[in-house]
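Researcher: Next entry in the queue.
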Amino acid sequence: MAELLQATAAALSLLFSADPVLWHIVGLSFSVTLRAVVFSAPFAILVAFALALGRFRGRRTLISTFNALMSLPAVVVGLSVYLVLSRSGPLGSLGLLFTQPAMVIAQAILIFPLLVAMAHGALQGAERRAWETALTLGASRRRAMLTLLHEVRFGITAALIAGFGRAISEVGCSLMVGGNIRGYTRNIPTAIALETSKGEFAQGIALGLVLLLLALALNLSLGLVQGKGELR
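Model: Structure for this entry, 232 residues:
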């Protein structure tokens, strides 16, 4: 018990003393995950839009598939991306393995089904007549799409927040394709795993507190966004 209290006190000291190593890890995590969300979101929204308003064979199967893939294990995504980017893989010549871009790609793939499923749910809850009316009034398909997206902006924002939370807390993808290189690919989850395995609990606890506070902030933001999207 005394050891735990001592480690916690050291963790708080690291947090409040602006330890450069710790806050570099935090900054890298936010940077990689934000890029993954920005990269994945436009494609996910387009797919969700097609699934919500399109009428084509296999549509229901695709919807069920994306819903099932929401719980896709991070380690499976990491392994798949590793095999593709390794020297013997089809994209091995790009030299992306054990780099931040590889982590961005893996996280973007990981959250893609979640973004599609949540954006699709938001779009399905929208009034289809808004789309049809916009087209009837002479709006282009692009303009009509933007109008509908504005109607469901709170649901889309909730999807982005959930995707960010899913990506920044995963360890499988980042560890397999990033390599946990200090100062370059070491993010919060991989640093926690490394420091704990070494018996150095102070930094692990400090980073865990950052993740905990982030989770609370994301949940609070998600609740506020969903509340604003309620019908009055």
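Model: The mean pLDDT is 86.
Researcher: Noted, moving on.
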